[in-house]
User: Fold this.
Amino acid sequence: MSDYLHIQNIHKDFSGLKVLTGVDFKVREKERHAVIGPNGAGKTTLFNIISGKFKPSSGAILFRGEDISGKSADVLNRHGLSRSFQITNVFQELSVFDNILSGVRSRYGLRYHFLRTPARNRVITEKTETIIEKVGLTGVKDQPASSLSYGQQRALEIGITLSTEPELILLDEPTAGMTREETEHAIKMIDQVTAGLTLIIIEHDMDVVFSLADTISVLHYGTILVCDAPDKIRCDQRVKDAYLGEG
Amino acid sequence: MKQKSISLITIIVLFAAGAVMPAVLKQYHLNMLTEIIIFALYAVSYNLLLGYAGLLSFGHASFFGLAAFATAVSITHIPGLSIWNVILISMAVTTLAGFALGGLLLRHKGAYFALLTLAFNSILFAIATKWHSVTGGDDGLSITRPDLSLGFTTIPLASLTNFYYLTLVVLGLAILFCWYFTKTAMGQTVLLMRENEDRMKFLGYNTNISRLILFTFSGAVAGLAGIFYTFHFQFVSISAISGDMSTAVLLIAFVGGTKKFWGPILGAFVYIILQNYLSDITDRWPLVMGVIFVLMVLFVPGGLSDVITNFWHKFFGKKDDKDGKLTTAEEVRP
Assistant:
């Protein structure tokens, strides 16, 4: 069986600044893959390339055997890939319901229709309600996103990511800025909502990483230092030197 | 459900009120009301760009004027053309222009987009001025309104009352469709464009296509208003495609308020009525309009619809609103 997702020797230069210098790793189907590494290692840039925000300078991304590198974000989303953002990136003035609805209706092809009203489509609204419930925002579903607490906005960010029913999910530091309690709550939620899906997650919080991931890639100065199971990573001398240091 | 029946009642009441107007109003005022409906549709089409998509255009008269000229030119050059075919030809011209122009201009956003629309409007204005053989240049084109052929009968539109009814029905339905459009998938996608264009892409939306569709649609609707503008005055001059006409629609939308669908409709009432009365009093009415506009932007940036909504909430709405929220929360619990 061929690999589900194969990141092949990805390079990215920003006008001379080499951010990624040959990133190479594989993700199996339904794997939970964490990408860790110090600030500036290029984690978000890597996500931006996989999700279609940037084009790689060179290299390929094979998704189910097809090279998807350089495809635009909307096309990739329709291929079943969805991502969240490190800095909350939602539709601030719209209600929680409309935020989630925007992705659900896109999944059902109701993007540019001139006559059909998505809010009256039973299947779509029920799907929307289900996702809102999954991320625990049912009580505030009619409130505008801008009125939500930080923790709720982060939950909404994940809800929007799920709304197009992706099979491959990229989460960029979903627990950034959360309190310990909020983080624990968020991990539990992420664990539930991504069950059965393939997950790639960027995280700084090692508790999150070790409790969620099956495989960990350590990104260091634009290249993958090591890619292995969590317990192996914990003991790896190179990782300790580069990143886990204090442990 | 409740909201839906309120909307339905409002629509029926408005159309019914419109239907009895010829019995109530003098010819002069009926004339003014016809003009208001035309400008209301023009402003509604503009607000789809400004209020709903957050796209500031300084060249909306490109479409309004293009359709106005297409109407006059086709009536002048093709004898015996029915009113429906005139509308069809002019709408087709405007829609194509919107599509072509949209494809060119939508690569840019914000100030660049606004300036490009302004530049293109100026080009069209220059063409209208210089291409004397077709557009009549500074003299404009005079036409006679064609009669309304309905197959089984023909209604003469020389009568103002008959033309008023045609305007009420056709443009009223167009405004209604625009309102419905804001609820549709495409209409809601327009809101996403305003709120967060970047995030839309990651949800499977092609933002260029979204903008192009909206721009073309908005242009076509402005075109329909332009067609009736020519019908109404039985004359079209270069002012229909001028920068002044683009500014007028901006003013109407701002005075009425861009946050509500009905804001620009209210704006059209205020603008046309003020313009009529002020121009009776003084030749310097544009100055007075300008001052009103400046004051509005400074002190009531949300426009009249915002003032009315706030007033309503303060004195009538608040309690209902609270109750409404409670019921939704209750529905949610079990």
Summary: Chain B touches chain A at residues 181, 183-186, 188-189, 191-192, 195-196, 198-207, 209-210, 213, 217, 325, 328-329, 332 (CB under 8 Å).
